[in-house]
Specification:
This protein has 320 residues and is α/β, with parallel strands linked by helices. The protein contains eleven helices and ten strands.
Length: 320
């Protein structure tokens, strides 16, 4: 793996992609590079989709990116799971000492978003992370209001300060494999300072910068792929509701440390069901939530999580 001395960056950007088209990912990459104004390492993390990673690598080889600030690296991660990709970036790929920005593969940050996020995350010692407000989508107005009131960490685009990432690495905090609500789990860990036994919930751990925003591709109800994605998202959102109950129980009620979260989302939810049977029985009266739990139980092979990320662009003869 590359060391911080190999990078020489002040900022780092992790872009997470799996099912997006090459065109969407490259548009995101253009927007990310356009938003950099300091030496930045941009890590494009393609998880669970080797053909997509190879297509992006071919495009980058034919049309190399030139930038005064940004250096791009393309990684393929065998396991198709965003939480795992996030863990890999934090514990193995993050250029040490950099302010880190996290971007979904279909999200195009506005030009000054990274600078605003950096201002937010450095505004106070008590701030651990910084996020912004969505500008597109049917639910954007409601989300903007909720985020501003609750200081929510929206997973499309946010940042963490270097000292917080060093702490995450030191205590061994990882997102459970297979978890859908990656942003909510991380947000809860941050607001409890990773240790709810000794720290109260503090919404000021997340700074919301009103000038940070982003755009996403338009969805069309008549397009089959969009309808299919919407239905799948509904099921995943039902899984997310189970996860929220389980995370709240783990952190807020039992006061267990964030680093002690189970390895997988299924283990997390099953622990809550086992220890809170009456509440779980009531929650699982919902057909969609029962269906989501059944889907979670169906996936159990996480063995490829042991395979390290592979750098596929730029091509290097050195061992990474």
């Amino acid at each position: 793996m590359p060391s911080a001395s190999d990078i020489g960056s002040e900022w780092s950007v992790a872009v997470f992609a799996a099912r997006e088209s090459p065109q969407v990912i490259l548009a995101t990459l253009d927007a990310v590079i356009n938003a950099t104004c300091k030496r930045t390492t941009v890590d494009l993390l393609i998880n669970g989709n080797s053909p997509l990673a190879n297509k992006i690598a071919e495009t980058l080889s034919r049309h190399p990116i030139t930038s005064d600030f940004a250096k791009v690296r393309l990684w393929h991660i065998q396991l198709g799971d965003k939480a795992h990709a996030w863990n890999q970036f934090i514990h193995h790929l993050w250029p040490q000492g950099t302010t880190a920005f996290f971007v979904d593969g279909y999200v195009q940050p506005a030009e000054k978003s990274f600078a605003f996020l950096a201002d937010g995350v450095n505004s106070s010692e008590q701030v651990f992370g910084s996020a912004g407000l969505p500008s597109s989508g049917r639910t954007a107005p409601q989300l903007r209001q909720q985020i501003q009131i609750e200081h929510s960490l929206h997973g499309n685009l946010f940042s963490l300060k270097p000292s917080v990432i060093l702490r995450i690495k030191k205590i061994g905090f990882r997102l459970p494999l297979g978890i859908y609500r990656t942003d909510a789990v991380l947000e809860a860990a941050l607001k409890f300072s990773f240790d709810p036994e000794h720290n109260d919930w503090n919404i000021d751990r997340v700074f919301i910068h009103p000038q940070v925003t982003w755009a996403t591709p338009a969805k069309h109800w008549w397009r089959y792929s969009d309808i299919k994605a919407h239905l799948k998202r509904m099921l995943r959102q039902s899984q997310g509701k189970l996860e929220i109950h389980a995370v709240r129980y783990h952190l807020a009620i039992k006061k267990r440390g964030a680093a002690s979260l189970p390895r997988t989302a299924l283990e997390l939810v099953l622990t809550w069901i086992d220890e809170c049977p009456d509440q779980a029985r009531e929650v699982l009266r919902s057909f969609m939530l029962r269906r989501a739990l059944s889907q979670m139980r169906a996936r159990h092979d996480w063995s490829s999580a042991n395979i390290p990320p592979v750098l596929i662009w730029p091509v290097s003869n050195k061992s990474e």
